[in-house]
Design brief:
By secondary structure, the protein is α/β, with parallel strands linked by helices. The protein has two domains: about 150 residues, ATPase, nucleotide binding domain (Nucleotidyltransferase, domain 5, 2-Layer Sandwich), CATH 3.30.420.40; about 190 residues, Hexokinase, domain 1 (3-Layer(aba) Sandwich). About 35% of the residues lie in helices and about 25% in strands. It has 13 helices and 16 strands. The strands form four sheets. It has a six-stranded mixed beta sheet with strand order 11-16-15-12-13-14, sandwiched between helices. Strand 7 and strand 8 form a beta hairpin. The protein is globular. The N terminus is likely disordered.
């Protein structure tokens, strides 16, 4: 699909800036000055062509693919090329992936995939390709987001000389730091979602016991992710059936639990959502403390916008601030939910724009 409101932009971009032209057969041809960006998750993969445009690259065409429907990232690139009805011709590419990136290689955490920058370079025939952790890509978008692309949970007292941080629950849980260097926020990825989950109450200790019995250990992602919400649902229902969520093993189960919890149609679902939100706020507060994120704590991922009423009712921020003796410090941290579902792709495009320029 061509991104909404981008059609007019595409028509007016100059050949130098965009180099997208139409043939007489109705096919758009993209010249190599374009950028390729990717956001590869355990469930969904976004690919996009962008034109350079100041600090924020301009999206021209974005498509979504079911990650597990393909055997490799190159297969998705081939599908993207078929959808464009022509070979992908770009100047540079940056791909955010849901897993650790080591020496331009990545193994995705929640699916049995490996991605290599070298393989992408060979497939595209270009020298400028970078892999980056998906939260690093999301973090790169933070300084590019406009006011209508975020919702504030706490205004705080923004410190323009301090660092920031990003946390995002979706298929998994990601966290990244943004260190202030020479006036810019520079992302530093982590695998903190796989750190140990810290129980704060007797009820959460019971949850940890259940998770240890099921997985051998309790990690943060076992609670704060789509599958994590399902784990909490199992805990609040004590292994029994739910009157609302019929198939807890379904890929749609996390969304069904969220909807039932928000609507109050099932007390077990409502408790699961409350526990999820409280644990999310607590872990976000931990991240803000570890990174001294006085420039802002940003909440990304696919879950947050869908449960926004549960994030804005005070429970999230109560847990975020409950860090005595550092609670007063945390009141100064701006806390914002990212609404732009393509922020990770935008961050990858911003990284691609730095390559070969």
């Amino acid at each position: 699909m061509v991104v909404p409101q981008m059609r007019e932009t595409l028509e007016h971009l100059t050949a130098r800036d965009c180099a997208g032209t139409r043939s007489g057969h109705g096919v758009t041809h993209y010249n190599p000055v374009m950028l390729l960006a990717g956001d590869v998750g355990g469930t969904k993969t976004l690919l996009g062509l962008f034109a350079r445009g100041g600090r924020r690259p301009t999206p021209i065409e974005i498509r979504s693919y079911e990650t597990t429907a393909f055997n490799s990232f190159v297969e998705i690139l081939e599908a993207f090329s078929r959808d464009l009805q022509q070979p992908i011709r770009v100047e540079a590419a940056a791909i955010g992936v849901a897993g650790p990136v080591v020496h331009d290689h990545a193994s995705l955490t929640n699916i049995t995939w490996a991605i290599s920058a070298g393989e992408i370079r060979e497939h595209l025939g270009i020298p400028h390709v970078r892999l980056l952790n998906d939260l690093e890509a999301l973090a790169r978008a933070v300084e590019l987001l406009s006011g209508d692309e975020v919702v504030s949970l706490q205004d705080g007292i923004p410190d323009s000389e301090a660092s920031a941080a990003v946390i995002a629950a979706g298929t998994g849980l990601g966290q990244a730091y943004l260190r202030r260097m020479n006036g810019r926020l520079v992302p530093a990825p982590s695998e903190a979602g796989h750190a140990d989950f810290a129980a704060r109450s007797d009820r959460e200790m019971e949850l940890v016991r259940m998770l240890r019995e099921r997985f051998g250990r309790a990690e943060v992602e076992h609670v704060l992710s789509g599958p994590g919400l399902v784990n909490v649902h199992r805990f609040t229902h004590r292994g029994g059936e739910c009157s609302v969520v019929e198939d807890i093993e379904s890929p749609d189960a996390p969304a069904a639990v969220s909807r039932a919890g928000l609507a109050g149609r099932c007390q077990g679902c409502a408790e699961a959502l409350r526990m999820f939100v409280s644990a999310y706020g607590a872990e976000a507060g931990n991240l803000a403390l570890r990174g001294l994120a006085l420039a802002g704590l940003y909440i990304g991922g696919g879950i947050a916008p869908k449960i926004l009423p549960a994030l804005t009712n005070g429970l999230f921020m109560e847990a975020f601030l409950a860090k005595a003796p550092m609670d007063e410090l945390l009141t100064r941290v701006p806390v914002k939910v990212i609404l732009n579902a393509q922020a990770g792709l935008l961050g990858a495009a911003a990284r691609a724009s730095e390559l070969g320029s």
